Amino acid sequence: MLLTLLLLPLAGSALVFAWKNPASKYLALGIAFAEMFLTFFMLSSLDFKPTVDGVLQYEINYPWSNFIKSNLHFGIDGMSMLMLLLTNILSVLIILSSFNEKPSYRNTFYGLILLMQFGLIGVFTALDGLLFYIFWEVTLIPIWLIAGIWGQENKKIQFTTRFFVYTFVGSLFMLIGLIYVYTHSASFALTDLYNADLNASEQTVIFWFIFFAFAVKLPIFPFHSWQPDTYTYSPTQGSMLLSGIMLKMAVYGLLRYLLPITPDPILGISGQIVMAMAIYGIVHGALIAIIQNDSKRLIAYSSLSHVGLMVAGIMASAILTMKGSLMIEGGEGALVQAFAHGINVVGLFYCADILYKRFKTRDIRQMGGLAKVAPKFAVLFMVILLGSVALPLTNGFVGEFILIKSIFDYNVLAAVVADEA
After folding, report:
1. Nearest by Cα to 54 from 89, 79, 71, 17
2. Residue 260 domain flag
3. pLDDT at position 51, please?
4. pLDDT tens figures, 51-72
5. Domains in the chain: how many in total?
6. pTM higher than 0.70, yes or no?
7. Which of the two ends of the chain, N or C, has the fewest CB atoms closer than 10 A to its terminal CB?
């Protein structure tokens, strides 16, 4: 069943690429719906434990390279299932959001979205370090093409080049780090990477090599300079894919790969530096967001703040756990917040796109009187906004509360700063 979940969007992508017909969007939507329903069916029989050591189910393990000791190893636990749910729900919504658009080469557009879905599912189910890296890179190609082909005409070369260079260089650092860990372990299997024979100094170097890739993808301050322009000038569906799902790959990678492989640096200066970067990023993103007039740029900087909170919560729990207090709330809170943020930010970009089509501008200063002319839309927009700011009883509250609690257990002042931002 997992093999079907993985290969269906790949096969669908090939069909959509080949079918040069306006109706290709319905084929893409049908495949996305099939993926979503299959995910819900798999969820119904899953032992849902969103932890690093969750019970693996639907496991697939085939050797494909004895020379480099890497297997086609896939599996699902609670952590990966939550990300699969997010990926496949949002894929449906993102395709639906484009139905009123008429993009040039529309079969290519929808084929790239399905190819992106294939890569994301691979990232969230791979249990082999090399396989994880391959799927990580697969996701870069379709989003780069979507942004480059359908992005804002006078800006797309500049921002897509910066985005590609940042993410590709970050990925190379991760590959180097994973290869080094592999040379000190039995294979690329995730369990073998966890048990690699690395001393404290080696772990510190590997920590920063792998963290750099995740820091760029999130992005977290100060590796975020590619984000505002890319979110702003990409087509709406590209912005949705980037913010709604792609950045969650890095949150997942922190929990699944980085922290279990290199636990020792967490207690040292490395953990403190990452914590400081995350807290500063929360404040930095919030302060710059409130002075933005462009609706998409405002969403981009607010997303930077949300991501900083996720990383801070993860690191706070990891540091406390390494000190002897079993604290998994930060990881759980980050996963819950990642799911809620994905739903909310996609909703915000969709609303921003509707407003742009109505007012012919993204300048929020020129968007007054919306409730009078579109009351239902105004209510929907308000609900999504309240979820984004984590008002109690909204979907954003639970994850943010858990994250703030984790940071509070680590450092009261850091929690106050994070909460106020």
Report:
1. 79
2. no
3. 46
4. 444 568 888 998 887 788 888 9
5. 1
6. yes
7. N
